[in-house]
């Protein structure tokens, strides 16, 4: 029974009189809709945490990964396993130390990545803007240098990353997909957390997504955000170390009985980068273990 159904689906060719059916890349079979073969993806914040896991996701989907981070070196254990994976899959993985708040530095880094990608016949096709920072302080006492720093990295740095990625896609005259890692905190105020600057910065990322999506769609460039809930990484370890009682509050909203892991973002990110999401732009994909679904 199962095998008959599988055969019908794999051999299917639907006659279509819908003009848009001839235009969408989503005509391809489903595995191809999740493939990043012959494409290079740049990932900021890929020295550790969620970003380095997303680099693994890119490789696993058949793409080449170019990691960007302000850290001098990526986390050694994860990096060794990425190199192994790249080698066994005949793909490339590269690491570029770069501060995304410097326009000169991020534009040069992305140009280098794009030129190498063209030479390798796997053009830069996507960018994941994942670098971000967090700081907890009551709003009435918020240190202004901390507030400005969060805006500088999470808003200006993210904008510079996507601005220069879009310029490359336009110059190459290729389509491109940009995924920005925002946060559920861009839409809700986290109970018990005093993070006004971070929350405001992530709301700015959501609006940045909609703004550039309406400018760049005509060039075949798609822009979407992912809004994670609480993920266990160095960022949240720091928050929990300062205030361990927070974990109980977070777990109270965890409809699936656990916090997120960096790996929970692999499939959502690959989906947004690849052709399966070819009619999605200016949208937000919330991946939060159900946190925002209940009060
Ligand atoms: N951890 C969570 O619960 C959570 C929840 C929602 C959203 N997010 C978002 O996910 C993304 C990744 O977070 P994470 O938890 O992996 O944090 P992380 O601190 O482990 O990783 C962030 C990375 O960004 C890099 N970075 C910081 N400033 C930079 C700069 N100026 N230039 C280049 N790189 C820079 C850091 O060096 C680090 O490697 C962030 O945008 C964060 O806001 C995280």
How would you sum up this structure, described in words?
This protein is α/β, with parallel strands linked by helices and 295 residues long. The chain has one domain: Rossmann fold (3-Layer(aba) Sandwich). The protein has 11 helices and 7 strands. Strands 3-2-1-4-5-6-7 form a 7-stranded parallel β-sheet, sandwiched between helices. Helix 4 (49-60) packs parallel to helix 5, helix 4 (49-60) crosses helix 11 and helix 7 (144-172) packs parallel to helix 8. The chain is globular. It starts with a helix and ends in an 8-residue tail after the last strand. Residues 1-10 have low confidence and may be disordered. The site of nicotinamide-adenine-dinucleotide has 28 residues, from helix 4, helix 7 and helix 9. It comes from Lachnellula hyalina.
Strand content: 5-15%
The low-confidence parts are: 1-10
Helical amount: 40-55%
What's the story with the biggest beta sheet?
A: 7 strands, parallel
Class inferred from helices and paired strands: alpha/beta
CATH superfamily: NAD(P)-binding Rossmann-like Domain
The radius of gyration is 20 Å
Number of helices: 11
Question: What would the keywords be for this entry?
Answer:
295 residues; alpha/beta; Rossmann fold; 7-stranded parallel beta sheet; 14% strand; globular; binds nicotinamide-adenine-dinucleotide
């Amino acid at each position: 029974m199962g095998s008959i159904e599988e055969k019908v689906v794999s051999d299917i060719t639907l006659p279509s009189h819908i003009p848009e059916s001839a235009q969408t890349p989503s005509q391809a079979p489903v595995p191809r809709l999740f493939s990043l073969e012959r494409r290079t993806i740049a990932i900021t914040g890929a020295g550790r945490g969620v970003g380095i896991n997303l680099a693994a996701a890119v490789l696993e989907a058949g793409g080449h990964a170019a990691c960007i981070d302000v850290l001098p070196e990526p986390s050694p254990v994860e990096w060794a396993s990425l190199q192994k994976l790249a080698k066994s899959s005949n793909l490339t993985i590269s690491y570029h130390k770069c501060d995304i708040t410097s326009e000169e530095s991020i534009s040069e880094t992305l140009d280098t990545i794009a030129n190498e990608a063209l030479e390798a016949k796997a053009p830069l096709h996507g960018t994941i803007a994942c670098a971000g920072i967090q700081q907890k302080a009551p709003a009435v006492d918020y240190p202004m240098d901390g507030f400005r720093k969060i805006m500088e990295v999470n808003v200006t740095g993210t904008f510079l990353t996507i601005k220069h990625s879009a310029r490359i896609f336009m110059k190459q005259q290729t389509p491109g997909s940009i995924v920005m890692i925002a946060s559920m905190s861009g839409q809700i105020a986290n109970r018990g957390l005093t993070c006004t600057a971070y929350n405001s910065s992530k709301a700015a990322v959501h609006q940045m997504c909609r703004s550039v999506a309406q400018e760049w769609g005509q060039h075949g460039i798609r822009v979407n955000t992912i809004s994670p809930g609480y993920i266990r990484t160095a960022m949240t370890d720091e928050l929990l170390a300062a205030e361990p009682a927070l974990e109980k509050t977070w777990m109270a909203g965890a409809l699936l009985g656990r916090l997120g892991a960096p790996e929970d973002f692999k499939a959502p990110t690959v989906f947004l980068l690849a052709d399966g999401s070819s009619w999605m732009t200016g949208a937000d994909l919330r991946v939060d273990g159900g946190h925002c679904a209940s009060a």
